[in-house]
Amino acid sequence: MSVLVEPVIQTVKLSKVYRSGFRMKRVRALVDLDLEIEKGETFGFLGPNGAGKTTLIKILMGLASPSSGQARIFGRPPRDARVKSRIGFLPESPYFYEYLTAMEFLRLSAQLSGVPGQEAEARVRRLLKLVRMEDAANVQMRGFSRGMLQRIGVAQALVNDPELVILDEPMGGLDPIGRKEFRDIIAKLRKQGKTVFFSTHILSDVEMICDRVGIVIAGRLVNTGRLTEILTEKAESIEVTVTGVTGKFRKVLERVAQQSIRSGDSLLLTVRGDDEVERVMAIVREAKAKVSAIVPRRKTLEDYFMARVREAGRN
Amino acid sequence: MGSRIRGIALNTFREAIRDKVLLTLLVFAILVMGSAKVIQPLALGEESKVIKDLGLASITLFCVLIAVLVGGRLVYKEVEKRTIYIMLSKPVRRWEFILGKYFGLMAVLLVSMLIMTGGFYITLFLTGIPASAYLLWSLLMTLFELAILTAVAILFSSFVTPITSAVFTFAVYFVGHLTRDLRLLAAMSPSPVVKAVSQFLYYVLPNLSNFNIRGEVVHNVLLHPQALALSALYAVVYTATLLLVSVAIFSRKDF
Fold first, then answer.
1. Are A125 and A158 in contact (CB under 8 A)?
2. In this structure, are residues A62 and A12 in contact, taking their beta carbons and an 8 Å threshold?
3. What is the pLDDT along chain B (255 residues), one digit of tens a residue?
4. Architecture of the domain defined by A9-227
5. Which of the residues A89, A97, A115, A165 would you substitute to probe the B interface, choosing the one with the greatest number of B C-beta atoms within 10 Å?
């Protein structure tokens, strides 16, 4: 056995070109993508719609083949059946056999994953409980809501007790409660030491649960890193809300601040540092007005993301 | 391997029997056979033969309809509804998927045929026509014909829409019953193009008229076991070839 720990997912110069439309225009869905995901990581794959997230996932699942470069999972090509038995997969807005009941579908999933008969039965019941679908176990899936399908989707992805779980937009179309439950499930998987790879464009979810993120824009991986590295802890700017300033005092305040927004008799000022906060306070005292809030603003993933998208747009 | 193919086959079977198309076709088939009672006076003393022939022909026709209509949607629907993502994300090889689908539909056809055959023998009993097991030889040969036709449907289903697939499969069915005429056309046509095309079709399309022994069984003509065995072997080889081609196409596909 090799002493070196092999990455769970590895892509080297992975590219995918589609031909689409009547004129067979070339669309570059992925461009020279290099990525490594280690065992036990929870990795968020971020990008706007159409950035190539689903394309990468399809290649990782062996549903599509790369135009050039290569992808390896557990050191093997993705289409290897031995690899598949160690992965759980939830596609984007999953749709299942509507004529099957939830139970029948999970049994089928277990059978196809090679889970032995008696074990499968126990596991299916445990998973139905995990995703809180016990009551609908014997109902045909044709009437299931989006959230219910998503839950069954998670259950089928976990039926083989996978080491790696790949989820494509798992929170898409879920209500806040559904998203919270989903985050809990991912947190649980992480605690069990499983590697989780998921794509999303909902940033708040990523911030809460990921060890590391990768940002993909127009098929290129523009950054990967620990969230704490990407987002500095230091406050980027401070927002000061002032009420009751008028006339020349307001003009002075607007000059001090980098940015100001007026709303009725209150003023929202964005300033850079503590010194400027002091200056604002002094002016406010002189004007006999009031400071109603001082809020330090950290750089959020959203800010980072927007800046990157803008940058990519400029290039 | 076996368990996965069985799983997919069972799922295909479940889908078909919970689908209204199959039920409608079966009810209709039983009605057609039941109508034998109505046409009895028209048969002018030949009723036994007419009713037997009609019964066997209806069973064949409805089975062909099921193979074409259900088979044409088989793979396409999984791709369209993206259930294929789930299937292929399991340790299922693509050839196992195609074989599972194939055997699932064959199981549907077998069960449908058994039900219709039951209806047929009941009709014979009700009309007072002596029912003989000899008729079953014809249905056995139909089953081999359906084996080929289902493989044709699956082949088309893996790359064209259900309607196109149904049209193509029907075309193969009809022309497949006329392949002898194709050879004749090739021999007699003065145009080299017509000659080449009809010769090509003759060699590529399945010769399905070999599987039609309705006339023989209805008229109690002695069957030649060797000829039947040869037809069966032909069906197996032809089907296997078509499935190989389907797997080859399906394996290269991006979803």
1. no
2. no
3. 688 999 999 999 998 888 887 888 888 888 877 777 677 666 666 778 888 888 899 899 999 999 998 888 888 888 888 899 999 999 999 999 999 999 999 999 999 999 999 988 888 888 888 888 888 999 999 999 999 999 999 999 888 888 999 999 999 999 899 888 888 888 888 888 888 888 888 888 898 988 999 888 888 888 888 999 999 999 999 999 999 999 999 998 888
4. 3-Layer(aba) Sandwich (3.40)
5. A97
* H or E stretch at A55: helix A53-60
Domain A235-298, CATH number (from 3.30.390.10, 3.30.70.1150, 3.30.540.10, 3.10.450.50):
3.30.70.1150
User: Which residues of chain A does B6 touch, with a Cβ-Cβ cutoff of 8 Å?
Assistant: 111
Determine whether the interchain pair B90/A62 forms a contact, defined as Cβ–Cβ distance below 8 Å.
no
Closest in B19, B81, B91 to A95, CB measured: B81
Domain edges within chain A: 9-227, 235-298
Q: What ipTM was assigned to the predicted interfaces of this complex?
A: 0.83
Of A94, A87, A84, A100, give the one whose Cα is nearest residue A153: A94
Q: Give the closest residue to B145 by CA, choosing from B228, B246, B49.
A: B228
Please name the member of A65, A87, A113 whose beta carbon is closest to the beta carbon of B254: A65
Chain A and chain B share a number of CB contacts under 8 A equal to: 74
Q: C-alpha distances in angstroms, B125 versus A229, B29, B36, B37, B129?
A: 84, 17, 12, 11, 6
